[in-house]
């Protein structure tokens, strides 16, 4: 199934393709004719999943987006303190090509402006391998594939970079660069001329989001301290003189490049990359800024809102064979449910359904096997449902319905914007619905019998016709009205109750509140619990609708034991066998939350 | 029990009290003699819990910390667009009292510098109530108590605020302030002269952290959009010309005031406030900055690290009576455990144990009833344990031990820094340990018998001595070596096994892996599961240590049924009763995750 997140990105892409303001960077001949119909959006999660739309594999030069990665490499190479001696971390409030050196020390204001980025290059070690080889290997490790230098862009950069040459010499004059500035500048131009695509940039951004570990390859590319520092500087300095407006509108550490790329990072969760070559007056991609603002607002990525996202939104994902309802079905129905049960899955969510939780939930549902017909989202432990979650859950419902699949929710008190969707107050109710739906779709009419004759009770299956007839002759028949209590906690063993028609519900009293446990329907028995001894009935049993019962009372059983010990023996053996069938079902059930 | 977070804050407070650099603000006569031995730290969570240490109820003037709250009020009053017309959101890179107006439009760079804050006051509605009344009510609602104006500080501010008067007239000249600037300025001075304490500021900061809802009173004080914008501007402009260094070192939106107060906000989680009057050259509290840096680093609050915190760290908190082990105890031991079981609690955690998860876990443990002797932290669903969590868990262990209470962990693969603590691979193992510990402490020696005679088996309790002797005479005795398999999945019913000594473990095969389900010990039976029919044994049963068994084989039972149906009847009835005792235990168990 197509993920609603892919649908969302496709719509956004189509929408923003209409934005035609701005022009490609004119400063470098090799870049000024870039095709402004090209437009890509890519999003990589910290577990390595990439969503992409448009020209996400079209290559362009990385330009200034190289700066944060060079900065992280320098920080890892020589440590924070040594880097700080040469470079400040303050926003300059200036454009990318401003000089912004401290009047006294010559320290560039930060590593995201050109002066700072050139100084950064000079701080990267080139002892064991040529410096640019190390830089390229570093970017490649973050992208998760081998990147290449564009010779033509490099040649163009080197030919036209007069202002950067001036900056490099100025840095040399202050001893910020301590060696010959020419090779430093050449490596700076090379770093800017590395070719990437939007997918690469999304994974590079996700590597920052993931504390320096590349999400797809698992390689630790950068240290955590270097990542924290780099993202901090990106926060205040990544968008040049537009930093305040960017933080207000988008609220993510980011970096743009005049090549048309833009990355934004949601720490712990997501790397976002956009490519489109037409630039605004700040030197950032017009569609890149617009898409970032839209995605941040629609998906709730602004750091103020995103802060509460936990990663553990999906608590469990299991099919109903793993945790069946307490309804007892006929042997044929049980077999069918064992076979078809995997077609009904329950996904249990917890915490706040903001971006990360929603994304992982939507992905989980989208990637379910096509055989799954019924999807139940258990929302009982969800604290908050953000608008992105509401939108995506409704979208999931439509996409599933289009494939003749059904979405249902478990919500004790429904979230208002989800109240229109099929909902159940408990998981057990949802499982009962799923079982009934599967039996109706794939079974025969007799599998969910309205009524069951005593001779067809699973509990009595080991007995022969004569034994069953004898037992039935000892039973008393009754019809109980809806809501009437049949058994009360504390009662003595009153016999074995056979449900011939209708339903009963069992509940326990917890803190004065009746907590529903199970619904029993035709073909099931109850009352045996009280066998434990005097006053051992622990559950309350109530009729749900009108229930048709036959009871083999304690007195009748006592009479049978005296008059026909052989039949009584076979009866008790059948009951013991039946009990152990239930013990076993429960062991399956209760072992489940243990692992 | 004292919370380890209180201990941490007390240590930090004692430590930083030694910092004696800086001096109180000299610009206002009423403030210049502030006592620099005063020092308070307060931390308020979004659920309204306040940690505080030092002079947390000593009042001082709010000064510039009023600015974000005035800004939020203006945003709520007239909307973001109308405010943006008068005020930019860009960092100025200047000190707090710099002019920083746009050359063309006169717009102040942001609302956190004086010029912007004065302009902000002019944007606050004063239609229905005098403007300052509304301002004071707004701050009071955020603090959760009625705040007061200091007349003496206000008088001092009004007398000495020449530069601010100049700013106000300059703003008037650009039509940024559209009315008489004098009343605006007076309200600005009043706003700065509101008296608060560190606890108030922590709750005001927590109100921002909590999306505008005061955590203790539940009052919605500010709109979410206003909060998001305010925190954005605090991020880039809250610490004046120190913004980049602050974001790098602390990584939280913040605001300081020359009164000696400082707030920092971890969105979604926490408000932090510090008071100490000696200021650094930027005009921020020396101890305030130092404490913020330490707390952020120690507790992992930097936005890059904190982003992954979920609120749902505590999945469950229950005592062992709610989810007992599968060990079958004697009646006396069972009664004792029912009575004392609440003294052993299991706290199940999930997600990342970074600050928020750790704080809630530590609070949960600290607030446990003093009767709780055994605390089990179930870490199986924890993805990451940050250093704050390691430190706090070790601290919890020591504090519990000092009160003769015991901490244990459940970790399948122990986290390395927690490997030295008492750990169990499964919850069931931890519960078995807790039960054995409670029985050893509060019970008698016979409650955890090494061996149980057939006549003392709970399953056979309804039978008389003659029946039991008869059954025992039909049993075959065996001793099984450690690790030997006794029953295999798929086997037919082989009889009922009585464990006289030692232990056996049952496990199921899930995806080819044996998953341990229960440990059975002396006094328990097994094998009945296979009663279901041919090949119905579903679990593997293995000896744990050397097991001493007696088995009533299927053949012996068949002979008994023929030769002595009365005794066989009583046997099967006892087994059925026993089975239903287990069904009931399991219903308790499995109903638990349902609610």
UniProtKB/TrEMBL annotation, chains A, B:
Q: Which InterPro entries match?
A: Beta-lactam/transpept-like, cNMP-bd_dom, cNMP-bd_dom_sf, Glutaminase, RmlC-like_jellyroll, STAS_dom, STAS_dom_sf
What are the residue boundaries of the STAS domain, all occurrences included? 346-410
Which Pfam families does this chain map to? Answer: cNMP_binding, Glutaminase
* Keywords, comma-separated and alphabetical: Acetylation, Hydrolase
Where does the Cyclic nucleotide-binding domain lie?
A: 459-560
GO MF terms here are: glutaminase activity
Q: Which reaction does it catalyse?
A: L-glutamine + H2O = L-glutamate + NH4(+)
Which positions are annotated as binding substrate? 64, 114, 157, 164, 188, 240, 258
Does the keyword Acetylation belong to this entry? yes
| UniProt keyword Hydrolase present | yes
Superkingdom to which the source organism belongs? Bacteria
Q: What is its EC number?
A: 3.5.1.2
Q: Which family does it belong to?
A: Belongs to the glutaminase family.
Q: Quaternary structure?
A: Homotetramer.
Q: Could you identify this protein by its name? A: Glutaminase
Q: Which organism is it from?
A: Paeniglutamicibacter psychrophenolicus
């Amino acid at each position: 199934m197509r993920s609603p997140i892919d649908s969302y990105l496709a719509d956004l892409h189509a929408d923003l393709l209409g934005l035609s303001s701005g022009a490609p960077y004119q400063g470098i001949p090799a870049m000024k004719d870039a095709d402004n119909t090209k437009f890509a959006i890519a999003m990589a999660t910290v577990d390595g999943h990439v969503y992409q739309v448009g020209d996400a594999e079209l290559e362009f030069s990385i330009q200034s987006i190289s700066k944060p990665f060079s900065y992280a490499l320098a920080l890892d190479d020589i440590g924070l303190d040594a880097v700080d001696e040469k470079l400040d971390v303050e926003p300059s409030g200036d454009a990318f090509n401003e000089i912004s050196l401290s009047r006294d020390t010559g320290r560039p204001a930060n590593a995201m402006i050109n002066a700072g980025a050139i100084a950064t290059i000079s701080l990267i070690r080139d002892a064991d391998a040529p410096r640019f080889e190390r830089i390229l290997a570093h970017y490649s490790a973050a992208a998760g594939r081998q990147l290449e230098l564009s010779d033509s862009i490099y040649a163009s950069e080197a030919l036209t970079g007069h202002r950067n040459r001036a900056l490099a010499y100025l840095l040399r004059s202050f001893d910020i660069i301590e060696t010959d500035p020419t090779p430093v500048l050449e490596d700076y131009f090379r770093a800017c001329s590395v070719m990437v695509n939007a997918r690469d940039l999304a994974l590079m951004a996700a590597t920052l989001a993931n504390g320096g570990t590349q999400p797809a390859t698992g390689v630790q590319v950068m240290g955590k301290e270097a990542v924290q520092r780099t993202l901090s500087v990106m926060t205040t300095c990544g968008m040049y003189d537009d930093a305040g407006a960017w933080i207000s509108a988008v609220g993510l550490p980011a970096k743009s490049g005049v090549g048309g790329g833009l990355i934004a990072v949601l720490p712990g969760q997501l790397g976002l990359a956009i490519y489109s070559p037409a630039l605004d007056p700040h030197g950032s991609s017009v569609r890149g800024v617009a898409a970032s603002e839209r995605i941040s607002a629609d998906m709730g990525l602004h750091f103020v809102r995103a802060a509460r996202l936990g990663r553990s939104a999906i608590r469990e994902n299991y099919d109903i064979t793993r945790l069946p309802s307490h309804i007892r079905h006929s042997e044929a129905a049980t077999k069918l449910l064992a076979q078809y049960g995997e077609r009904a899955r329950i996904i249990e969510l917890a915490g706040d359904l903001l971006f990360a939780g929603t994304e992982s939930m939507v992905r989980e549902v989208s990637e379910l096997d096509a055989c799954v017909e019924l999807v139940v989202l258990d929302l009982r432990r969800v604290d908050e449902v953000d608008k992105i979650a509401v939108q995506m859950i409704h979208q999931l419902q439509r996409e599933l319905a289009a494939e003749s699949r059904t979405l249902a929710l478990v919500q004790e008190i429904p979230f208002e914007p989800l109240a229109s969707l099929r909902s159940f107050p408990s998981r057990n109710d949802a499982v009962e619905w799923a079982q009934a739906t599967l039996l109706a779709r794939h079974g025969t009419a007799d599998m969910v019998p309205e009524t069951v004759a005593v001779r067809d009770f699973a509990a009595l299956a080991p007995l022969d016709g004569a034994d069953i007839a004898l037992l039935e002759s000892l039973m008393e028949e009754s019809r109980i009205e809806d809501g009437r209590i049949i058994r009360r906690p504390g009662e003595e063993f009153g016999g074995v109750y056979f449900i011939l028609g209708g339903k009963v519900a069992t509940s326990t009293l917890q803190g004065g509140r009746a907590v529903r446990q199970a619904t029993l329907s035709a073909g099931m028995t109850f009352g045996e619990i009280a066998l434990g001894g005097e006053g051992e009935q622990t559950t309350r049993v109530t009729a749900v609708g009108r229930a048709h019962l036959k009871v083999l009372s304690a007195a009748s059983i006592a009479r049978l034991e005296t008059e026909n010990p052989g039949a009584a023996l076979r009866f008790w053996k059948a009951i013991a066998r039946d009990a152990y069938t239930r013990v076993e079902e429960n062991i399956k059930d209760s072992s489940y939350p243990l692992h």
